[in-house]
Automatic annotation (TrEMBL):
Pfam families: TPR_1, TPR_11, TPR_16, TPR_2, TPR_8. This is Tetratricopeptide repeat protein. The keyword Repeat applies. SUPFAM superfamilies: Protein kinase-like (PK-like), TPR-like.
């Protein structure tokens, strides 16, 4: 006893009489669990568990002990371990073949929970025959007791060799004995996982189906099939696959979270949120459920609730660049730019070559009136992802703010060549053309923007203003009316509609439009000046003077402010 058996991972020097390591909680050499199993050496560690070579002191037989590492596991994991152990022991009682690896005992001693299995030694005098239950036992206990090759490598794969007598004094002409070929055993699940990782989804689907044909209780195969079908654009079938997985493992937070992803694609948001709640019920610390829930909330406009979910995810794992990015995007949508910048910088510290992060940081800096710094980031983003229309669009916006209009036009055109449906790019292109006084070209850009998004209020307003500038007043009125149909409180649209009506000689209608502007924005001097002009034209001189005086007073207040 004394030194921890995990020399590499722990190596703590305990007092000589210590049965368990004070640092990691594993048993020390010579510890006897429950007065029965004497620990001799550490075989290996894997995902929160440790495997030991041990001796059953009752019959002096070699056994293997599998234990959870106390330092790396929680109470719930220990309870689940003991439940699995109880089931494995129950199934093993039906296995009478001494050659089979069986789970023979389990329990708790000190800080550890453990299971005990036989070594499954094959007698030399007989050819081993697999137990009909050995596959079930091994499948149930695969995470707890990984199979280790027996010494000497003998077993089912060793074939009988035929000896041929060679007469004395005659050269050997008979070729060396040949082994009977062993049929290849396909691990369809492993092949499916590999194909999925390589993006070969059709092949992955075939392999998962082969796995399911062999074992319909494979939760991993059903889950892999669901993920693959989602990639293949078959969400309804993917949902059925995840339902099968959950029927087999209803407390699996990963399955619930994956099912939520499918429901998101199907736009069944209430059911999606229910799945995240189920996942977190079974594992309140499942980070992917928190992050997925946050992203769903952010997309539905529940930004504050989304930030709470992202906070929970990052408390569990602060190294998740995707979650930092989602938090930054959400804060950006709330116009909390300083906080958004902090979140994006955290994401970039974890992944500094991701174009979307550079793009978002550039947009934040532009909002903070730092277009030069924003431009440098967007240039790098376009280098990393030259086929992203969004990157070129955002770079063009920086150039527009810097009044480098010619370069901005080139980049808007680059963006639209990649995605001609990008309404924002058509709209901002129109603004740049208007600034260059290329009004007809600007109108064409606004029309293109409205073709892809006829709810773009600013495009209707800017189109109306250009038409008014070109003295196409009737067309301008139609554009202003479309803007006001979308936002009845659009003060500038009421003001400019009044000017177009005035130009058409429709004075009473012009006055009504300007009345709307002054009632919605009584502090706006331009509307009052324009209203004074119309009143004067109508011969209502005293009212015109009052409006003009009020407009001058507002101007003076603005200058003093």
């Amino acid at each position: 006893m004394g030194k921890c058996l995990d020399f590499k991972g722990c190596g703590f020097d305990n007092r000589d009489e210590a049965r368990f390591c004070s640092q990691c909680g594993l048993p020390t050499g010579g510890t006897v669990l429950q007065g029965h199993y004497e620990i001799q050496s550490l075989i290996g560690k894997d995902r929160g568990t440790a495997t030991f070579q041990a001796t059953d002191r009752q019959n002096q037989q070699a056994v293997t002990v599998r234990a959870l590492i106390p330092r790396d596991t929680n109470a719930r994991e220990r309870d689940n371990f003991l439940q699995d152990a109880e089931l494995a022991v129950s199934l093993s009682t039906h296995v009478s073949d001494p050659r089979s690896i069986r789970v023979i005992d389990y329990g708790q001693d000190g800080p550890i929970v453990y299971m005990v299995k036989t070594t499954g030694t094959t007698p030399q005098s007989s050819t081993p025959q697999p137990s009909p239950l050995s596959r079930i036992i091994n499948r149930l206990s695969t995470d707890l007791f990984p199979q280790t090759p027996s010494p000497g490598g003998t077993g089912d794969e060793e074939t009988t060799q035929i000896r041929i007598a060679i007469p004395t004094g005659r050269p050997q002409t008979v070729p060396p004995p040949r082994k009977t070929p062993v049929p290849a055993v396909h691990d369809w699940l492993a092949e499916g996982n590999l194909a999925y990782e390589h993006g070969d989804y059709e092949q992955a689907l075939m392999n998962y189906d082969m796995t399911i044909n062999q074992d319909r209780s494979s939760v991993e195969a059903w889950g892999g099939k669901g993920a693959t079908l989602l990639h293949l654009g078959r969400p309804e079938e993917a949902l059925q696959a995840y339902d099968q997985a959950l029927a087999l493992s209803p407390r699996d937070p990963e399955c619930w979270t994956s099912r939520a992803s499918v429901l998101h694609d199907l736009q069944r948001y209430d059911e999606e949120m229910y799945c995240y709640e189920q996942a977190l019920t079974f594992d309140p610390d499942y980070i992917y459920a928190w992050s997925g829930r946050g992203m769903a909330l952010a997309e539905k406009g529940y930004s504050e609730e989304a930030l709470v979910a992202f906070d929970r995810a990052l408390l569990l794992d602060s190294q998740q660049a995707t979650v930092w990015q989602a938090m930054g995007d959400t804060l950006y949508s709330l116009q909390r730019y300083d906080e958004a910048l902090i979140a994006i910088d955290r994401a970039l510290s974890l992944d500094n070559d991701q174009a979307s992060l550079l793009d978002t940081k550039g947009n934040i800096l532009r909002r903070l009136k730092q277009p030069e710094q924003a431009l440098a980031l967007h240039e790098r983003a376009t280098q990393l992802e030259p086929n992203s229309a969004t990157n070129w669009f955002d770079k063009a916006n920086d150039l527009r703010d810097l009044r480098r209009f010619g370069e901005a036009l080139n980049d808007y055109d680059r963006a639209l060549a990649l995605d001609p449906t990008l309404a924002g790019a058509w709209y901002n292109r129109g603004n740049v053309l208007a600034a260059l006084r290329m009004f007809e070209d600007a109108l064409n850009s606004y029309d293109q923007a409205l073709q892809y998004d006829d709810g773009l209020i600013s495009a209707w307003y800017n189109k109306g203003s250009l038409l008014h500038e070109l003295q196409r007043h009737q067309e301008a009125l139609a554009a202003f009316d479309r803007a006001l149909a979308l936002d009845v409180h659009y003060i500038a649209a009421w003001n400019n509609k009044g000017l177009s009506l005035f130009a058409l000689g429709r004075l009473e209608e012009a006055l009504a439009a300007l009345d709307q502007a002054t009632s919605f924005a009584p502090e706006e001097p331009d509307a009052w000046y324009n209203k004074a002009v119309v009143l004067d034209k109508l011969g209502r001189k005293q009212e015109a003077i009052t409006c003009r005086d009020w407009a001058r007073s507002l101007d003076q207040q603005a200058k003093q402010a």
